[in-house]
Task: structure prediction
Amino acid sequence: MTRAVGVRTIFEMCSSKNPEGYSEDGFMKLVLIRTTINGRQYDLEVRPNMTLLDLLRDELGLPGTKRGCEVGECGACTVLMNGQAVNSCLVLAPQIDNEEILTVEGLAEGEKLHPLQESFLDHDAVHCGFCTPGMLMSAKDLLDHAPDPSENEIRTAISGNLCRCTGYQQIVDAIKEVEGEKRKT
Result:
């Protein structure tokens, strides 16, 4: 059996005294990253296998980003990375080096809620609240990139976010109202 030069088996990596990517004591080497989260710059040392979700919730104390399915299906962990909605459970923390992250905690300006947050409250689009942060971030991505989305575009934009309480109509109405207010200004 032939093998490509430079390719090592798992057995070879694990049985060597100091496998690649591991320190002398057998622990994974930390990766230094610089990132901006909610307008604040951070210099962090993270494990190479740590997800952005784990970094936000467990290391930085930002619990608004919810831990749901952890496989990118439910949208509860949606945040904006450079203005684009991403599932933070699928992004590794080292991937956010030199990137800008916005979480639901960064939407409000001080005590003043973001117009999307106000509209969700006004339209009773917040029931149990578990999906709300991800819905808000997906809606922000949509409204930042589509000046006048149709109801179908709104539904498509939030289709990666699962909600078991509202039936989605209140959420769609809340997003439509903010979009309408943007056109008035």
